[in-house]
Amino acid sequence: MKAIALNQPGGTEQFRYVSLNTPVIQSREVLIEVKAISINPVDVKTRSGRGLYSRLAGENRLILGWDISGIVVETGNAVTELVIGDEVFGMVNFPGHGQAYAEYVAAPADHLALKPANISHEEAAASTLAALTAWQAIIHNAKVKAGQRVLIHAAAGGVGHFAVQIAKNAGAWVAGTSSAANRDLVMSLGADQHIDYRSVRFEEAVSNIDFVLDTIGGENIDRSLLIMRKAGTLISIPTGLNESVTQKARALGINGYSILVHSSGSDMKALAAMLESGKLKAHISRTFPFDEMADAHKQIESGHTAGKVVVTL
Questions:
Q1: How would you class 48 by CB atoms within 10 Å of its CB: exposed for 0-12, middle for 13-18, buried for 19 or more?
Q2: pTM for the structure as a whole
Q3: Contact assessment for residue 294 and residue 12, using Cβ atoms and an 8 Å cutoff
Q4: Per-residue pLDDT tens for 90-119?
Q5: Beta strand 67-75 with 228-236: parallel, antiparallel or unpaired?
Q6: Measured between alpha carbons, how far is 232 from 209 in angstroms, rounded to an integer?
Q7: N or C end of the chain: smaller count of CB under 10 Å?
Q8: Which helix (DSSP H) or strand (DSSP E) does residue 250 occupy?
Q9: CB atoms within 10 A of CB 250
């Protein structure tokens, strides 16, 4: 099978297309013929030597990627929920060695869900790591409830555009920040208020916020604390809250911390139900063929991607 290995950390020139044997699955795994792969900022960071690279540097052959959608072609002898021919999607082995940049991927069956028939493999692959991050932050960690006020930073981004939809589905009032160019996208997701971060300081636009999902980091965290209610929750995705900011949050009676998304078949099934009902939709801004993986990474590196970038096989 064709796969993309990483020679060493660096730029996209470190990608190497290789021919490998099809993976041998374990008893609780399935073999998936991959149809689409989603690319995330963590892919780019890990490729460059940051992100999860330190965890994976000891791998004999490092193959990036975690988000896939495809067809089950083999099942382990302990797998009962999935059968050959099932169309499935999920985030595989995160934060471990996902090895998704390949034509075939061995995946734990309990990291996957059946792909709804009403969405494409591209849409399914897009609705994995980013959607899981939003789901786990909003539903499991913050436990957002109906009537609460929520602020989503970078609401047109990969995590952000799913977060707006998930928070709205939970019954929250939602504001989202983005550039003016992405206002229509953010509002189409169900946001109650859009804030153009280039022309308006969000502190002057919203107040009494119960939950903030920060996907930017830095001073954004400190500024967000100023608009929050006591006992509110701030979750930061890209940068863990350093101790001084944690202390500031605690002094204000606010819960502030970071999370790392993890693979979960049960969460994928919850997302699948939302996708099937139309309550959740993936916005795909660019699609690239497998042979143009470098271009997909460069698109993410631009920092100006609305929604998701997907690679097809």
A1: middle
A2: 0.96
A3: yes
A4: 999 999 999 999 999 999 999 999 999 999
A5: unpaired
A6: 7
A7: N
A8: helix 243-251
A9: 11
